[in-house]
Write a structure and sequence with these properties.
The chain is of the alpha+beta class. 19% of the residues lie in helices and 20% in strands. The chain has one domain. It has a six-stranded mixed beta barrel. The structure holds 2-acetamido-2-deoxy-beta-D-glucopyranose.
Amino acid sequence: MRYTPSIVLSFVSLVTAREISSNLQAFYDAHINEECPNAISIAYDSGQATSDTVYCQDASGAVYLKDTKSGYADMDIDCDGLNADQGDCNNDPSGQSQTAFQDQVQAFGISDLDAHIHTYVVLGNDNSADGGDGGVSFDPQSVGIKPLSVVAVVCDGQLFYALWGDVNGGKSTGESSLALGQLCFPDEGLTGDSGHEKHDVLYLAFPGNNAVPGASANWTAGSREEFEASLAATGDALVAGLSSGSKTRVMRGRL
Ligand SMILES: *[C@@H]1O[C@H](CO)[C@@H](O)[C@H](O)[C@H]1NC(C)=O
């Protein structure tokens, strides 16, 4: 009966492969080749180049990583949290034992996020003296993005839901958990030390408490597909409310 697990797995991935709604596709297409109209951070590093990626705010308040030229962001693999040295994470050069919101995660009955199960993304840059250059930091909470809120991720023509689950201590941008990376790019052999380098991944975070799934997420899910699916009710509502590709209006009265 060795074939049974793979049949079950492909069924599950069929169920969770999410189509990109037309308004989200319009958003993706409208912004990919433009310069960010409303940058809210300094330019951080993608890993492929330095000072090439900003946090960009849409008129709706949604925030996304944007290459300063064309493109969005890459996808490096983050293995922080539980089982940081296991499986395809065992070669992660920057693994840490904890994720940034570990104390809040513990309210849901787990001791930390697990990069093998939880689809999470890394947003925010401490740019600390230790990890970056001790220069200007960016905290998504400064523009209303809540810890452990749902982030819509467009990768390889699909949509997956993730959580804002970790913060970069340095200047790097474009990172996701192993679980999300392998769902996005199952054929690229992503591991803790090998990411997706093309700047075609859209990470879209939404402000406010409506983006926080809280107890409706299945924190104790047994698989990445099951966890991702548990974010869909929250995520679908956020994506449905996104205005399609209209030109971003620069918010007045804001530096
Ligand atoms: C969460 O995942 C666990 C493990 O697979 C499962 O037993 C449980 O029924 C799930 N809970 C919900 C609310 O879906």
